[in-house]
UniProtKB/TrEMBL annotation:
Domain of life: Eukaryota
Name assigned to this protein: Uncharacterized protein
InterPro entries named in the record: Thiolase-like
A molecular-function term among this protein's GO annotations: acyltransferase activity
Annotated organism of origin: Phaeodactylum tricornutum (strain CCAP 1055/1)
Length: 315
């Protein structure tokens, strides 16, 4: 994270903005809640952890609600029966959908192009060709010793000139608006309320009789090895994450001792039903069916100043 040159904006009590550069290891994210390796062998390779965690979270609620039998590991026992297809809705919510796979693929491509991934012969050939292209004549000199020395001197001079030109470029600095650039637009504008909005949409579907039951699936994985260096820097630039090195100091309630939130990962799944659908399940299911909660209404809000720091330009 130090390589990304994170700069945090802090507002003083009088409203003045101060730029604080993150330059010490103690000032970067030390802790994050990460997903384990459960069920890793049960999935095919193209699946990354974010969609796995969301789908796994939906299985048990779907079974408890009587939508699937789930008696064994046979995929057929976890398929939605035909009789429920026209009356069941699905709401899928995610703030950073598909980013884990996209960023991971880009990073693998970049790593394949680094010096460490290349063989010595390829590096020597590439360097030779590059220096030759830098020569005015674009040709190698004759095999005369004096000519070779002169050519070598010119190559060294060209290399130094190229090096000086490359050092004029500004070093990489992460855009402090990166977090909002990669957020789903709706979440970036209305705050990260993906789960609350998904439940509200599910309730609207039930109230408008578009469905008799709705499966709500949501989840994200921003603390994995792929996204944490990037999204972690974004949250760090906002000053929203804790830099504590121990769980006892980091996992604190909202009070004056709290330094920020712990980044994590996970998924949730729930099934919302109408009164009529619930009564049918209680009558038809072979096992006891209990109502876990009753949804009366959904209301969510946001702090209107939560993105205030992003209005300040980078320069």
């Amino acid at each position: 994270m130090l390589d990304n040159d994170v700069v945090q904006l802090k507002r003083s009590k009088n409203g003045a903005i101060q730029r604080v550069r993150v330059e010490k290891e103690s000032n970067v994210i030390q802790l994050a809640a990460q997903l384990g390796a459960l069920y890793q062998q049960a999935w095919r390779k193209p699946w990354t952890w974010p969609p796995k965690s969301r789908l796994l979270s939906a299985w048990k609620p779907s079974k408890n609600a009587g939508l699937v039998s789930g008696k064994c590991n046979d995929p057929k026992d976890w398929m939605l029966p035909e009789k429920y297809c026209d009356t069941t809705g699905v709401v899928y919510a995610s703030s950073f959908s598909a980013m884990d796979a996209a960023v991971g693929e880009v990073m693998r491509f970049l790593q394949s192009k680094t010096v460490g991934a290349a063989d010595s012969t390829g590096l020597v050939t590439a360097l030779r060709n590059r220096l030759v292209r830098a020569l005015p004549s674009r040709k190698l000199p004759n095999n005369n010793n004096n000519n070779n020395k002169a050519a070598f001197a010119r190559l060294v001079a060209c290399a130094r000139k190229t090096e000086l030109e490359e050092t004029k470029n500004k070093p990489y600095k992460i855009d402090r608006k990166f977090l909002f650039c990669v957020l789903v637009v709706g979440n970036a504008e209305l705050a990260p309320l993906a789960i609350a909005k998904a439940i509200a949409m599910a309730q609207d579907m039930l109230a408008s009789r578009r469905a008799q039951q709705v499966v709500v699936v949501a989840g994200d994985n921003i603390s994995g090895e792929t996204l944490l260096p990037w999204l972690g820097c974004g949250f760090r630039a906002l000053g929203a994450t804790t830099t504590a090195a121990t769980v006892e100091d980091a996992a604190l309630p909202f009070n004056r001792r709290r330094l920020g939130m712990l980044l994590g990962a996970g998924g949730i799944g729930m099934v919302l039903k109408t009164e009529l659908s619930m009564v049918k399940c209680q009558r038809l299911l072979p096992y006891p069916f209990w109502v876990k909660a009753r949804l009366l209404a959904v209301q969510y809000g946001m702090e209107r100043h939560w993105t205030a720091n992003t209005l300040v330009p980078n320069s």
